[in-house]
Design brief:
Length: 201
Amino acid sequence: MEHSDLRKEEIIKACTDLYDKYNFKDITIKLISEQTTFSRPSIYNYFETKEEIFLALFQKEYEKWQDEVDAIRNNNESLTKDEFAEKLAHTLEDKERLLKLLSMNMYDLEENSRIERLTEFKKAYGNAVHAVRLCLNKFFKDMSEEDTIEFIYSFFPFMFGIYPYASVTKKQKQAMEEAGIKYKYFTIYEIAYMGIRKLLG
């Protein structure tokens, strides 16, 4: 790996560690630089904005998830709808970081990134979509192209809402109780499974 790539990896790793503890708005480039071996001005040689760093982190999370989706296709000859829903849901249950990123304001993240950075991210996103499509094509040969598109255009937006429903804070719980809202807690896996199974029909 080249020196510049190692520097990028170090920046992304610092951002990852911080994001596991803090919210996006609380993380600054200064804070990220304090977790690296070089100065804040040096970061700008690789990323122009905080959003670009997060986009690179987002890209890595999509790539990791895609590997697991590919493994479903490669390691199984056939799956029922229930089995596929279970396996796809399991790929998301330990992807809290990906789901948390998805629940953010994507418009601001993408708008404050250079086109080349955004294009790299979109490729990772596109590969993840393609991985899901290949699974549908393999396991559900009777699924029409229209049904496949409908699944993809429902499932990927659905993923944006998994984290907020599965990760409810004490403050949110208190507010819902005071508002008289009955709330049943579901895990990431349970929410994902229910949504996938419903979309499969």
